[in-house]
Amino acid sequence: MAEHAGVSAKTVSNVLHNHPYVSATTRETVEASIAALGYRANLSARALASKQTGFIALAIPGLDNPYYSELASHVMDAAAEHDWIVLIEQTRSSEAMEKAVVRGPASQLVDGIILQPDAIGDADLTDRFAHQNLVLIGEAAATASADHVTADSTAAAREVVEHLLEQGRTRIATVGIRPSNRANAGELRYRGYYQALERAGLGVRTEYLAPAERTRRPDGAAAADHLMSLPEPPDAIVCFNDLLASGVLARLRERGVAVPDDVAIAGFDDNEESRFTAPPLTSVAWDLEALGRRCVELLRARTGRTDGDHPPVRTVVGHRLVVRESTAGRG
């Protein structure tokens, strides 16, 4: 191919790997030769030569949640800069599927894995798989012995409740945010909720902690029915995510409950839908671009390293509270 294009083999390689330091004219010449010769990259040969597969895995609960689909997009963008293709595994938060991701034979077919471990424990992650290139995301991974990229859910929840308290709300309920014996997202957000109420001199009312079997709109609607049927309904509801909050908003509208006049609503994730609900939803926005990029950076840093053991790295990405009409009103 280099001979056909009249350039060096290195220049052809630079074009194939989309390196920026190639002139437009040279790139066009090489691409014309590629087309003329019908060249297709031999990925198997490339993997043998580099001892890398060219693939990484992203194992997440499911793409039907806008949070994970947006995260996947950012991971794919960052991975493309390193010529990696991202394979997506939907675990559905299943212990068996999460174990298969990190300990099954398929783990040897990728250069690294980005995993949200919702069901498996630290012991499974410590004895994970041979090549050691594992990055964990989410709150439940806080004690695992692997690189970990997360956000501060406790601080974020505390900020949401403090905002509601500033709006004069005192009967603040939750949906899907409850205490747990596992340091998962629900537990960590509950800690922030508890801290803010404690500082305000308000205790947690257990009847205001509405469970959610899943974190989808129908579960939010069912929780709204439960909370609004209480003898003293809440004047604010903090939902585990925006999908639950969307369900709560829809059900309150059906019941003739004014938001935010009667009840203020807030969520987490700030997905696109949140800007277009009626009314627009106050939500915590995570820096998913930074989260995805950092995961890929950590995998790249460990790929191919043979210079001894390196302790795991923990990274906390930023967040911000986006205040909209569902808590602050039109003013």
3D architecture notes:
It is elongated, with a radius of gyration of 24 Å. It has 3 domains: about 1-40, lambda repressor-like DNA-binding domains (434 Repressor (Amino-terminal Domain)), CATH 1.10.260.40; about 50-150 and about 285-315, Rossmann fold (3-Layer(aba) Sandwich); about 155-285 and about 320-330, Rossmann fold, CATH 3.40.50.2300. It has helices at about 1-5, 10-15, 25-35, 45-50, 65-80, 95-105, 120-125, 155-165, 185-200, 215-230, 240-255, 290-300, 325-330; strands at about 55-60, 85-90, 115, 135, 145-150, 170-175, 210, 235-240, 265-270, 280-285, 315, 320. Strands 2-1-3-4-5-11 form a 6-stranded parallel sheet, sandwiched between helices. Strands 7-6-8-9-10-12 form a 6-stranded mixed sheet, with helices on both faces. β3, α7 and β4 (about 135) form a beta-alpha-beta unit. The protein is α/β, with parallel strands linked by helices and about 325 residues long. The termini are far apart. The protein has 13 helices and 12 strands.
Which radius of gyration do the C-alpha atoms yield?
24 Å
So what's the overall shape? elongated
CATH superfamily of the largest domain: Response regulator
Helical element count?
Answer: 13
CATH topology of the largest domain: Rossmann fold
Average of pLDDT: 88
